[in-house]
């Protein structure tokens, strides 16, 4: 497995792969099974696999957890080597954003609701770094998790708008046995918070059951999620949402026949902010 840390090194690795198909898996490291499922899917579908490990400062707000974001490069490299990854790109901040760096990529609309409303510069950080990774790695396919549903919607829009010649592949959310979505941030949870955290998944299930029973009133669906989360003393709800899966606009009143729905939420446990979602029908984006 090659480890590229500079722009020249990743360019040279990509050059070697020539016309072979390349699967790209962008991550911020501290890898778990959710990340590894993306890697395995990329491994199955491509001649070459490039995984990037980069904690991108531009996607963290000033009051967010950049400096304490968990890192374990040595363990990450071991996991990726076991998955037969061809190249890991793990650049420095100086390599990605040299002192005279000036360019930002902005998707204007689908970035506005939900996560974008609470984290105003988050998605421009994501779209900027992912553009750089696409240009450097020129992937045939790029792999992202449904866990970050709005990120998927934003990146799909960017790929369409900027004519990136690649396919976005979205992989299902990997969960613990009790339903908690795997996340690098779960390690911040105290034992008590960890025990309460499956409430996110439980509230999504409640909404999913109502939806399957034919409930189409979006207020009723949101209230069902909120009821479950509100019953958890250690949880502070940031938002619950029942939105159009493509535009991410909140549904009001009755959801029209034939429409899909994205149920999503963000919940604080202490300082730790967890997100989760379910898309119905799956793949409706
Ligand atoms: P991150 O390192 O958190 O930026 O995540 C890197 C990629 O892994 C993103 O595309 C995430 O959506 C995806 N991912 C994170 N957690 C999970 C999970 N539990 N299941 C599936 N994909 C995930």
Structure keywords:
285 residues, alpha/beta, 3-stranded antiparallel sheet, 37% helix, globular
Q: Uncertain segments of ≥5 residues (pLDDT<50)?
A: none
* Tally of alpha and pi helices: 10
Helix content: 25-40%
Which range does the strand content fall in? 15-25%
Secondary-structure element sequence? EHEHEHEHHHEHEHHHEEE
* Main sheet makeup: 6 strands, parallel
- Mean pLDDT, to the nearest integer, reads 97
Span between N and C termini?
Answer: 34 Å
Q: How many β-strand runs?
A: 9
Using only C-alpha atoms, the radius of gyration works out to 19 Å
**What overall geometry do the principal axes of the alpha carbons give?**
globular
What does this structure look like?
By secondary structure, the protein is of the alpha/beta class. It is built from ten helices and nine strands. Strand 8 (261-269) and strand 9 form a beta hairpin. The chain starts with a strand and ends in a 5-residue tail after the last strand. The model has no long low-confidence stretch (mean pLDDT 97). Bound molecules: adenosine monophosphate. Adenosine monophosphate is lined by residues 27-28, 34-35, 37-38, 144-145, 147-148, 171, 173-174, 181-184.
Write the layout of secondary structure elements.
Elements: E1 2-4, H1 7-17, E2 22-27, H2 33-45, E3 48-53, H3 73-82, E4 87-89, H4 93-96, H5 114-118, H6 122-137, E5 141-145, H7 149-161, E6 167-171, H8 191-196, H9 199-212, H10 218-230, E7 235-243, E8 261-269, E9 272-280
Parallel strand pairs: 1-4, 2-3, 2-5, 3-4, 5-6
Antiparallel strand pairs: 7-8, 8-9
Helix pairs in contact: 6-7, 9-10
The protein binds adenosine monophosphate.
Adenosine monophosphate (AMP) binds at residues 27-28, 34-35, 37-38, 144-145, 147-148, 171, 173-174, 181-184.
């Amino acid at each position: 497995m090659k480890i590229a840390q500079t722009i020249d090194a990743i360019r040279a690795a990509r050059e070697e792969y020539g016309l072979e198909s390349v699967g790209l898996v962008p991550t911020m490291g501290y890898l778990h099974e959710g990340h590894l499922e993306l890697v395995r899917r990329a491994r199955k579908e491509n001649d070459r696999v490039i995984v990037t490990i980069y904690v991108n400062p531009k996607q963290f707000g000033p009051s967010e957890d950049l400096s304490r974001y968990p890192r374990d490069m040595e363990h990450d490299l071991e996991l990726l080597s076991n998955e037969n990854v061809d190249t890991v790109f793990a650049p420095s901040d100086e390599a990605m954003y040299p002192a005279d760096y000036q360019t930002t990529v902005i998707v204007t609309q689908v970035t506005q609701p939900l996560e974008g409303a609470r984290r105003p510069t988050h998605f421009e950080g994501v779209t900027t770094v992912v553009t750089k990774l696409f240009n450097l790695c020129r992937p045939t396919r790029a792999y992202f998790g449904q866990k970050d549903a709005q990120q998927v919607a934003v990146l799909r829009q960017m790929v369409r708008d900027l004519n990136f010649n690649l396919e976005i592949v979205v992989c299902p959310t990997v969960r613990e046995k009790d339903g908690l979505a795997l996340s690098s941030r779960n390690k911040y949870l105290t034992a008590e918070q960890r025990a309460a955290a499956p409430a996110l998944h439980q509230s999504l299930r409640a909404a999913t059951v109502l939806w399957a029973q034919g409930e189409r009133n979006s207020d009723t669906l949101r209230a069902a999620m909120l009821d479950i989360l509100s019953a958890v003393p250690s949880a502070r709800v940031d938002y619950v949402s029942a939105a159009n899966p493509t535009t991410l606009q909140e549904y009001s009143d009755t959801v029209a026949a034939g429409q899909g729905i994205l149920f999503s939420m963000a919940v604080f446990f202490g300082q730790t902010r967890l997100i989760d979602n379910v898309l119905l029908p799956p793949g409706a984006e």
